[in-house]
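User: Predict the structure for this protein chain, please.
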Amino acid sequence: MSWKNFLNCFATLAMTLTPSSRAKRGDPEKLGQTLNLFGLICFIVLYPFPVFADAQVPQKPILIKANQATYTSSLDKIVASGNVLVFHNDRTLLANQVVFERREGTIEASGDVWLRTPTGDLIWAQHVWLEESMENGKLSQIRILMADNSRFAAIEGLYHQDNTDLWGAVYSPCRVCQNKNDNKPLWQIKADQVTHNRAEQIIEYRNARLEIMGVPVIYTPYFRHPDPTIKRKSGLLVPVFGRTNDLGLIFGQPLYAVLSEDSDTTITPLFTSRQGPVIIGEYRKRFRDSQWLFHSSYTHTKHLPNLSGSALPPPTANRWHFITKGRMELTDYHLLTVNINRASDTTFLRRYPILPNKSYLIPKDKNLTSTVALEQFFEKSYASAAFYAFQTDNKPTTPLVAPLADYHFRTQPGPNGETLEATFNFLSLTRQQDIPGKFPKDSQRLSSSVGGQVPYISPWGDEWKAEMWLRGDIYRLKHFRTNSMIAPHLHTQGRFFPQGALRWRYPFISYATTSSWLLEPEAMVVTSPILPNKRRFPNEDADNVELDYTNLFKLDRFPGLDRLDFGSRLVYGFNNTWQFSSQRRVAFFLGKTNRLDHHQVLPPGAGENSHGSDVITRLKIEPAHWLNLRHQSRLQQKRLHLRVAETYVIVGNPVLRLQAGHIYIVPQPLLTIPRIDQVNWQVSTQAIDQWTIAFAESRNLRGGVLARLISFNYQNDCLQAVIGAYHTTYSDRDIRPDTGFLFQLNFKNLGTFSPITSPTSPSDIFNSFFS
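Assistant: Here is the predicted structure, written as structure tokens:
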């Protein structure tokens, strides 16, 4: 034994004496007896065998702290009692009494025994037998608190360095309320035997029963899941099931495999009783500066009649999809993103439950868009080059964009706040056939603009800003004709477009004790030469335009470059905001445009004619925490008849809450604009603790119900349960109206048990069918 180790241990134990065992000041005899006692314990523990000059350094010592201790030299045994603490190999043991048999190399602890493992687990037992290394032993009447606060209980068990075996065991991650008469967890797994393999980070159950609220619901002869210390583990995932009128009974068994530290895969065979099997696969891979996801499926399906009467042909028998998402940071300033979405047809992903619980993969509509983009970010500039491919039901006229390049440069503000800007845009697209009067078969467009702005604040506090831009466009068009009587030909044409604007706004603000009022009138005059949007220029990117509060004061209100926002107009309006305490406020905006040149610039139905625009309004009301209202509308400029209105409101609190959204568009038969009058609403309550009950509906106010949903949601720290039913009336070729049920159980540390066809919230219904 090293004298240095002995002295260190002696000093440590002497300093950790409990106050009850410390000798009083002025009693040196008792102090000497106490120190000799702890020195003897330290000596015995540290002196396992004779030490020779070439002997190896022994393992870490066993340190014992106790109120009382006795050593029997003839038996080579230590008996410690009263708040006994034993430290060895990153393990800590606390007990009322500890018996250390040095000859046998065993430690026996009894009376409220606590053992803390190197992984952070805390084990309580009534009686514990351990080897001297404290890595192996036997326990009785066991309670285990794991690092994530999940719990085990067992009649007896064997504790080893790499695994723990429990008999008559119960597992649950649920907290137990001690102040209730029934202190059982919400759900638990009971098993004849449980093995926690720490080396493989797996917990295995034999003859296991899942109990919910004390009622057995599932039995399995064998079951296993990863322990809480691991995020990924290969094995079978929770099965998925469901039923629809179209597909029949559905069952899938996902198989998850961890391929490496930075990659994994999931294979799911999906079986349907009416339409045959489907195979689904997913692969994920991470690199240091990139991440990739691949998702695909295949099935051989049966055809259904054309339910909606569409002239489009039905899908083929061989149906599939392929999705790729990637993000690669090439440098600190360059980013590559890949988003590929392809399928055999546009109804496959909506008819088959291929993407359950993967909202980040589900397309927003039936048309699929694939994109590959390279972006460059600098302090004063931004550049991008993107390739787009679209999958629609009209393949011959669907364009392929290769590429769309953008560059934008802006200087830092000068001494007077002035800035200069330059933009560059290049578009190249092709399609299988042209559309006379609308789109060419092939086209290239090069556009560039330069401009700047100068702000000014007058001594009276009003703000002015002058802007000036000069833009030039060059088109190369192949197979473009203004009508079907003209033979397709190749031609090149261009145009120059200068544009200037003068903006003005004057904010007035008034303060009160608990509120403030802001009135901000603003106006803008825009002028440019009259360059009508002639049909000899195609319109690929500026067709969908609608005037509202977001673009009313923009210089160019078109979303793209193929159409010019030419001519002269006066834009005016005001913002009116009342701000109260606790972030309460009421805000109102009103604006309008007057045409100074009496030219029709925006397409019919967009909200502006040759005289001016409709009246644009926006209202935001938040007077209390229980009310939130958003409304925007377009009013006919003379008689103020309503043309377009969108309203969204939330009323109530968690005890009772109403959410509703309404859209209304007046029909314009001459412009082939149909009437839209639709409301989506949901009422929910959380009056019962941990419960949410909701009823939702999507309704065409002039046609009938589009979808309905009722759901009951229960959620606490270890379980989320959803049950309900839904009905939809949506039809599109091989997709028919459906009635189904909602059911989902999400067990903490185990996974999610859910029908593969059921949405889990009203928003899923609305997003899937009516977005």
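The chain has four helices and 42 strands.
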